[in-house]
Amino acid sequence: MAGAGLVTTVATPAAASTDHLPNNDQFGMLYDATKCVGCKACMAACKRVNARPGGLAFEQARFDEDGLWDAPEDLDGNTRTLIKLYKDAKGWSYVKYSCMHCQKPSCVSVCPVSAMTKDPKTGIVDYSKDTCIGCRYCQVACPFNIPKFQWDRTIPQIVKCDLCRNTNLKEKGKPACAETCPAGAILFGRREDLLAEARSRLKQYPKRYVAHIYGEHEMGGTNHLYLAAMPFERLGLPTLKSEAPASFSERIQHTIYKGFIAPVALYASLCCIALRNLKKTVPRPEAELERTQPKEI
Amino acid sequence: MMGLPLGMHGRVAAAAQSSARPPVIWLHFQECTGCSESLLRSSHPSVSSLILDLISLDYHETLMAGAGAQAEQSLHESMARNRGKYLLVVEGAIPKGQNGIFCKVGGKTAVDLLQEVAPGAAAVLCIGTCSSFGGIQSVGVNPTGAVGVRELVTDKPIVNIPGCPPSPYNFLSTVLYYLTFKRLPELDALGRPKFAYGRKIHEHCERRPHFDAGRFAQAYGDAGHAQGYCLYKLGCKGPATYANCSVQRFNDAGVWPVSIGHPCIGCTEPEILFKLPIAEKVQIHDPTPFDSYAPANLKEKGKGPDPLTTGVVGLAAGAVIGAGIMMAKKLPDSIPTQKAEPHRHEPTK
Description:
The complex is a heterodimer. Chain A folds into two domains: 3-244, Alpha-Beta Plaits, CATH 3.30.70; 257-296. Chain A is 32% helix and 13% strand. Chain A has ten helices and ten strands. In chain A, the strands form four sheets. A three-stranded mixed sheet of chain A has the order 9-1-10. Chain A has a two-stranded antiparallel sheet with strand order 3-4. In chain A, a hairpin with a 4-residue loop joins strand 3 and strand 4. Chain A is globular and about 85 Å long. Chain B is of the alpha/beta class. Chain B has two domains: 6-196, 3-Layer(aba) Sandwich (Rossmann fold), CATH 3.40.50.700; 199-292, Cytochrome-c3 Hydrogenase, Chain A, domain 2, CATH 4.10.480.10. Classes of the chains: A alpha+beta, B alpha/beta. Strand 3 (82-87) of chain A pairs parallel with strand 11 (294-295) of chain B.
């Protein structure tokens, strides 16, 4: 795939985040919950591939005395992707959790030190452990509850999917989960192609799916897209507006600080007030006394 | 079976039918002939078709028609005629202790025989765990100083086909691979062909779903054992043993130890066979997900604080702030120090 070449060439953080419109050339994944068989091969592959560079470890469950299984209950400091199950009287569905790689990611917007970055070309939302100061704003900001903190480590990191940017994507042109999936439930590719594929599936099998591509518009669009047979809310994917919160907050911030006019004006006026008050008290006899004192000591 | 794409079968068949049969010399040392017995039970190709059509088996102590001087002559003639071309198959470990007196064939020690035959071989195939890694006689105090071929022969390509006994098809496939491509298959770190020893038994075990779901036989003959549950807790070494037994099976009847209720003893692994007790559990180093799913529902938010609690806390906070203000008012206007004095009358606005 061309992915490997593209990834290696671009490494600059999202500088042009203002010209935000869905950039459909970026990489993404399409997860089709109706195709998923719940085998968890993606989970195993993710951990196998990212164990060392990603600092992922196995999650031992309480009931598991012999350490036989990797049993994460949710995304956590050791788990970047996870298959969950929704079940009620009417039906059931698997659902895969991993980073949505938003077009306008909140985690990147809130990060005070730019440890979270969005690659403008590949669209990968990545994390730099060397820059991170551990404030965990990204955790609070993410509407999908994706970034996880390694609470149990002395030198913790934020853990989230980076589309295997430094591992499988580099080596084989595909993230490990998409490469491994035996059911074809995880497609990796350009967002445009994935959207076209999702639309054609909706058209071809209208009865199988809920007529909605989750991630097409949510949060200003995400690069990880979902198709499912039941309302996405039930699968733990929240109903979100199409405007990214990050766009909204950045608009406010960027308006206030545009050209740095408002802060300069504010401090200039404060300065004027201070100076005016200062003039009234300048001829002070005590002041001269103070100036001479140090010499005597 | 050989890890080749389906399209290659024509080439393999052509190689198998060609008249150029590579000469094979088969040496037996410290062994039980179980590996040869295993080979005799193969059916596709059968051992007769192997030794009559595929290879020219010039010397094999169990299978050759000749005996004594006649057999020795066949060995030496083949070695001289096919120098650098014959395949040497070794079955059994080689005792090095006390000048190798523990195993002699035709008056020569195993070490001498190997040193005599190996230099002229194109490659050495070690069939069974004994010739591959030393086997049972090399375990513990190792009174005979038994070693595998790789300890003695270092200048020849060696393929280890361990197992106790190995599946005959792993051996036959290696030979066929050699016939087809005129080179040896890809090997792992222990010299085993990857097409047969590339994955763990555990990965393709028919009892694997029971493992994933935590259903184990706890004792031989218990209800779980009768139900065909996973044998891990009886000491199955499948999660640490690289071999294709769970796929290839044995005796052309689809059976293998685990299918009849006995845990794998790890016979293809030099560090497991006869070194770990059969009943001992192995540590699993790369765990796989447990067979259950976390519920996907959005987590319900907590109820939040009670209005009464909020009120009480608010009142308390207000009281504290009020008390603070009152206290601040009662503070003396200035602290009588030299520096604070001149600033006292400074206008605040």
